[in-house]
Design brief:
This protein has 735 residues and is mainly α. Among the domains are: 2-222, no CATH class; 234-342, 3-Layer(aba) Sandwich (Glutaredoxin). 65% of the residues lie in helices and 5% in strands. It contains 34 helices and 8 strands. The strands form 2 sheets. Strands 6-7-5-4-3-8 form a 6-stranded mixed sheet. A two-stranded antiparallel ribbon has the order 1-2. Helix 10 links the parallel strand 4 and strand 5. The longest helix has 30 residues, at 64-93. The protein is globular and about 90 Å long. The protein starts with a helix and ends with a strand. Residues 728-735 have low confidence and may be disordered.
């Protein structure tokens, strides 16, 4: 009896300790998704220990019912402890809604107790002598099936009996308890409940051999039909969903069947060019085909593959997963990951210890493009703003994820680019395999960092504090307040807003902003007020709250938006002051394009700006009308940005540049650069080539490499178009 009490006390103490430890850890300190996942794992093993102790105490048949009741109470207490501790911690010391955690714990963690307890009893049921070995094998299989699925199948999400569900990456912030999750866990609970009933309640009425075989048979069948049930993705499902497929010497490209021939041709050429270019840069020869899967949008990607917020590659499978809106921006980056498999280590062909700074830093180094800036320029901004993390920490374990993605990607990428330029590709490859800086470079990481910073500071760059804040003023995911709850509520509010249920949407946004000061809740709330044409109210709210975000990357968006709202209020002079202030900060091409456009309209016809901003559904039509009436040089940058949304705008833009465009400054060179990118996508190779050649003469130092890259890409596209046979070793189909 003493042993049983000690065993039960031990389980309770472990549960209490882990619960309190979680209250001090990022994400786990909130009674939410991550906490439920951790306790799914904890409850499984604690309940399994309880199961083995329960078996040991079944020697006296007269006390069997009493023992069952005691152990049932223990299972209940083992779940109540983590619930109570996390709920109270969230309720008393946090701003998040603690009640939302109940649904995750109910679906994820509580069933894990049943599964762990039953698995222990089933292991003993098969063999009392080898029960621990059997339990270990079963647990190992259940926990490693997701790894096998991710390794072999075109998916990065997983469903698992113990952990329930993982969406693929931490960047998908909203993880609701979907219908699929409920169905999956219901099936699992029914299966283990029946098994527990057979083992405990009716053990003598069934032959052990048949029960054991039946359990394994049902489990195997379930694994085999997971795809048909919607809990797994196979390649055939992706082909069926997207419908378009192109196969060439180097690629199998799967894409939405409805896209036109022009876009397909662009995607094919883009893939081929970036591959050939990178093979030369990286000194790599690869003969196997690469599969590139391009989804329609992030929602489709998330549903079929997982990781809606991130584009992903699987180097060990030679597969890339992106979407139409991002593929041209990410293809080079993802191809670096694929090519790095030629010198990667382990079954996943990645860097040693899966070090994210090495993996992503290498890709950024060869991509050398972040929003069309050279990454060294942005790393320089990071250093001068004193926001750069020490490399010895950034390259240590998974510290990479404790920083905002822009900081981690750019700084690790610029450092790897420095190592590549100074020491060559071969040493970079050795570093990727060993992560031994001192052995390869004869210097420790701190010494290398000093040389790296000195090299950056010697570049002909200028510090722009506003750009530094724009790119690096974002919160790391681990520091966001009520991460999962906020994302789910924002999505719910957006859906209600789309359904014109403004009252409910405003209530959600208001409550969320009050608790978290999340900028998207402020934006959503004010957008509804603007839809209701309460412009003065909107101006007061944004003016009052904007300084709260003065050190956040969203500050300039709010500032720009405030100027727009002032236009809607008829305060044209105040709006012009803000536009000019932002213009002088030189934030980005996009910002400057829209600011220049608004200032031009304010100077000529202020009411036309108000009309443009108030009629959101007809902006492209209004832009066409404005372009016909105004000096087109004042609006051409906006036309370039909007041309992909309107055939008419594209035609006007093309006609403007065909008349001849003079490049005489850095600003006009930037216009020519972005116009060249637009025309390249539309197979206007001569026009694209002419513009980028002119732009190169005035290329700014911080974008020079990307201007040159655009010229090389354009020349290659043009050559392939004139020599079509070079790409005709292919097959094309739409299913």
């Amino acid at each position: 009896m003493k042993l049983k009490l000690k065993g039960k006390s031990f389980l309770l103490i472990i549960s209490i300790l882990i619960s309190f430890i979680c209250t001090r850890l990022p994400l786990l300190q909130i009674f939410d998704y991550e906490y439920a996942v951790v306790f799914s794992f904890v409850n499984y093993f604690l309940s399994a220990i309880a199961g083995f102790l329960f078996v040991r105490g079944q020697s006296s048949p007269s006390k069997t019912k009493w023992n069952r009741a005691l152990w049932l109470m223990l299972m209940i207490v083992l779940n109540l402890i983590p619930i109570a501790i996390s709920f109270l911690n969230t309720f008393l010391f946090g701003v998040c809604d603690p009640y939302r955690g109940f649904s995750y714990f109910l679906v994820f963690a509580i069933p894990a107790s049943l599964i762990g307890f039953t698995t222990a009893l089933f292991s003993n049921y098969q063999s009392g002598k080898y029960k621990f070995l059997i339990f270990t094998i079963i647990s190992f299989i259940m926990l490693t099936i997701p790894i096998v699925e991710i390794y072999l199948l075109p998916q990065i999400y997983f469903y698992n009996p113990i952990l329930t569900f993982f969406p693929g990456t931490i960047y998908d912030e909203d993880i609701p308890i979907s219908f699929n999750i409920v169905v999956y866990k219901t099936i699992i609970v029914i299966f283990f409940s029946i098994l527990l009933y057979i083992i405990i309640i009716k053990p003598v009425q069934f032959k052990k051999k048949y029960i054991t075989l039946g359990v394994y048979f049902v489990a195997i069948i379930f694994v085999l039909i997971k795809s048909e049930l919607g809990f797994q993705t196979k390649f055939d499902k992706i082909i069926q969903s997207l419908g378009g497929k192109y196969e060439s010497k180097n690629f199998v490209i799967v894409y939405p069947k409805e896209i036109d021939a022009l876009e397909i041709d662009y995607l094919i050429k883009l893939h081929e060019y970036e591959l050939q270019n990178l093979k030369n840069q990286m000194d790599i020869r690869i003969n196997s085909k690469i599969t590139s899967i391009i989804f329609r949008n992030r929602e489709e990607k998330r549903k079929i593959f997982g990781a809606g917020q991130a584009d992903v590659s699987k180097p060990w499978l030679n597969q890339i997963y992106s979407e139409l809106g991002t593929v041209d921006r990410v293809i080079k980056h993802e191809l670096v990951h694929i090519l790095s498999s030629e010198f990667g280590v382990g079954i996943f062909k990645l860097s040693k210890n899966f070090n994210p700074s090495l993996i992503e830093g290498l890709a950024m180094a060869f991509e050398n493009n972040y929003n069309d800036y050279d990454i060294d320029y942005l790393a320089y901004q990071l250093i001068k703003s004193n926001s750069n993390p020490p490399l010895e920490y950034l390259f240590a374990g998974f510290d990479f994820f404790s920083h905002s993605s822009s900081v981690a990607y750019i700084y690790s990428g610029s450092f790897m680019n420095y190592l590549r330029r100074i020491y060559g590709n071969e040493k970079i490859k050795l570093l990727y395999q060993t992560m031994d800086f001192e052995k390869i470079y004869k210097k420790n990481l701190s010494q290398l960092e000093k040389g790296f910073i000195k090299n950056l500071e010697a570049q002909d760059y200028k510090f722009n504090s506003s750009q530094a804040m724009l790119y690096f003023g974002r919160q790391p995911i681990f520091k966001k307040v009520c991460l999962r709850q906020t994302a789910i509520l924002l999505k719910e509010a957006q859906e209600r807003k789309n359904d014109n249920d403004f009252r409910s949407a405003k209530a959600i946004y208001r409550q969320l902003f009050k608790k978290t000061h999340n900028i998207n809740s402020l934006i959503g709330y004010v957008e509804i007020i603007l839809k209701q044409k309460k412009y003065s109210d909107a101006e007061k709210i944004v003016s009052k709250e904007i300084e709260r975000y003065s050190e956040n990357s969203s500050y300039y968006y709010l500032k720009f938006w405030l100027a727009d709202i002032k236009v809607l209020c008829g305060k044209f002079d105040e709006a012009a002051l803000i536009y000019n202030e932002l213009k002088n900060k030189h934030l980005s091409f996009n910002y400057e394009a829209y600011i220049k456009f608004r200032l031009s309209l304010l100077n000529s016809n202020p009411n036309s700006v108000r009309e443009f901003l108030s009629k959101t559904k007809f902006r492209n039509e209004l832009l066409i009308d404005i372009a016909k009436k105004m000096n087109q040089s004042e609006v051409v940058d906006v036309q370039i940005l909007q041309a992909e949304e309107s055939d008419e705008i594209y035609k006007i833009t093309k006609a403007y540049f065909e008349e001849g465009f003079d490049v005489e400054s850095v600003k006009s060179a930037e216009t020519a650069f972005y116009a060249s990118k637009l025309f390249l996508k539309n197979a206007e190779y001569n026009l694209a080539e002419d513009l980028i050649k002119k732009a190169l003469n005035f290329a700014p130092e911080n974008k020079k490499q990307n201007y040159l890259e655009q010229l090389l890409r354009t020349n290659w596209f043009k050559y392939q178009s004139e020599n079509k046979s070079r790409l005709n070793d292919s097959s094309y189909s739409k299913n």
